[in-house]
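Feature request disguised as a bug: please show the residue count (103) next to YolD-like protein in the output. Example input:
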Amino acid sequence: MRVTEGNLFASMRLTLPEHREMVERLEREASRRRAPEWTEDRWSEIEYVLAEALGTGSQVRISLFGPHEDEVWEGVPILRNGRVYLEAGDGAGRRLKTAFGLL
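Example output, currently without the count:
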């Protein structure tokens, strides 16, 4: 069996374990997503929605960026000691500072 570009079996057979680990790590890093960059208008929209939900006590859903997949938080935003928390139905509160880094 000749080692050619399309011959995956032969090329993997010649790869040292430490090189294979390095290739896998580089592929994982390459698959990481980049965080979105929001405009002032988008931040204003988020601020408005959170203020409206704080005033009415309505539930919100927030999708948080993750390097590999997004995390979704759902709950009612509440104000405690000058900080905004997202309270889930089970009574657990998550501080939104961890989500946005600025509240």
